[in-house]
Amino acid sequence: MTSLTSNPKVQLAATAVVSAAVAAAAVLSYQRLQQDGRRASRLKQSIPGPNESDSALPTLTRVGPLPKPDKEDEHNQVLAHRAQNGDFDDELILEQLARNRVFLGDEGLARLRDSCVVIVGCGGVGSHACAALARSGVSRLRLIDFDQVTLSSLNRHAVATLADVGLPKVQCLQRRLVAVTPWVRFDLRLQKFDGKVADELLGGWVEDEGGKAVRPVDFVIDAIDNIDSKVELLKYCHDHGLPVISAMGAGTKSDPTRVMVGDIGASFEDGLSRATRRRLKLLGVSSGIPVVYSTEKMGEGKAALLPLSEEEFQKGAVGDLGVLPDFRVRILPVLGTMPAVFGYTVANHVILRLTGYPIDYQPAKARDKMYDAILAYVQASEEKIVRMIEGGRTDVCIGLKVPITPGDIAFLVEEAFRGRSAVTGIPTKLVLTRWRKPLETTLVRIGEGNAEQKSSNLRLRDLVCMTKEEATRHQKEILQGAKNLEDLYSREVIEMVEARQKEAEAYERYR
């Protein structure tokens, strides 16, 4: 073997073989590079130059002229107009979406490109969600927001620049994103969302100028930071079967590892989520809406919601200080990175849902059966009280109704009493019962004969959360007996229950 390798002829032959292989590889690599270069060149040539002229975008996607459009704006608008009218190489789009295509597959990407998403609220969270969806391939985006870009917006907005200050946020997004994804169609709605305009703003996407071709909305993103509007949006989507995901409070948060997706009924450690959940439960919506929220706890040295100064209160009605009636007036401390985390998490969820990609989030609490059981307990307890007050008559309870719903039960147990007994703090075998003994009849009669309706005058503020054993003792000794609350409970327990009942009373107006 040594003699062969040392033979000059063998060495020369080996060298020739290796050289030929290297040369062949170099030639093939050069050819591939040339092919790729020619392909890239062809794709680039399909993009119109800055001096090409064309008509403007359809008026459907505009809320007004851009302030002093520069040459880049004009070029981008021309390109967008051509792309949205089919004069754009689809291969170029697929090349831009190549990484998503590999991840989601051809079928998944096709679904995404054919989808229509509505984004309500285009501030920090909404703008990042919008940018991510456009870059990922969503071809129809309806943007809803009444506000304008301000200097303070620039610490968290996805695309706004100093040149955009004063521009409507919806228009700012369209202005900047057409330069990245010119094929995306934008439907801009410069208005505040509320229940009165829900049908219009969440209706189908009009595909033609005649308004005959209408396709349904595939997903709705809630990025609103106003409770009233947020609740109205989520209730509408829930009632109409519109897929929706809601972004909760990014303000005062700083830990991106605590941001997660979960059901509205299972979210915790988030003030906006808690307030929204309470209102929704009173409207009968206790689960079924995914939300993005942070489990980060508030603590010493951390940012908190800034209250209005006494000077502002002295100026007059606090509500008059807001941008719009019933809109928030307090200042939200926001770390600029956190709305982006929330926005991308929202967009990620929408992309996975639209494409059918597997999702394995933390499961929500399955407590609906518990709420139904507690409602049945409340019903039986009210029948006992009515019989007692009416002298033991059983006929008065036939057909008796209680004005309490499973949503009310969910609100009282989970929100007002924090999922614990008011007496001992025990979180298991919970029920609701009247706190105070009625001083007069609780029976309400309407109508006569077969048309008579019988109900209890029970209110949310009348109920208290206890374990079943505690409630049995309470009913026997307080509601049906002669003892006072002070005979069974400490002053601390009584004051805590009364505070919870005042909280329930304040929320009764939202039922």
- Apparent shape: elongated
Structural class: alpha/beta
Side by side, the strands of the main sheet go 3-2-1-6-7-9-8
User: What is the number of helical segments per DSSP (H or I, 4+ residues)?
Assistant: 17
CATH superfamily of the largest domain: NAD(P)-binding Rossmann-like Domain
**CATH class identity of the largest domain:** Alpha Beta
SSE ordering: HHHHHEHEHEHEEEHEEHEHHHHEEEEHHH
Segments where pLDDT lies below 50 for 5+ residues? 50-62, 312-329
- Could you tell me the strand content as a percent range? 5-15%
Main sheet makeup: 7 strands, mixed
Distance between the termini: 94 Å
Number of strands: 13
**Can you tell me the CATH architecture of the largest domain?**
3-Layer(aba) Sandwich
Radius of gyration in whole Å, from Cα?
Answer: 32 Å
Protein name: THIF-type NAD/FAD binding fold domain-containing protein
Family: Belongs to the HesA/MoeB/ThiF family.
Domain THIF-type NAD/FAD binding fold: 99-362
Function: Catalyzes the ATP-dependent dehydration of threonylcarbamoyladenosine at position 37 (t(6)A37) to form cyclic t(6)A37 (ct(6)A37) in tRNAs that read codons beginning with adenine.
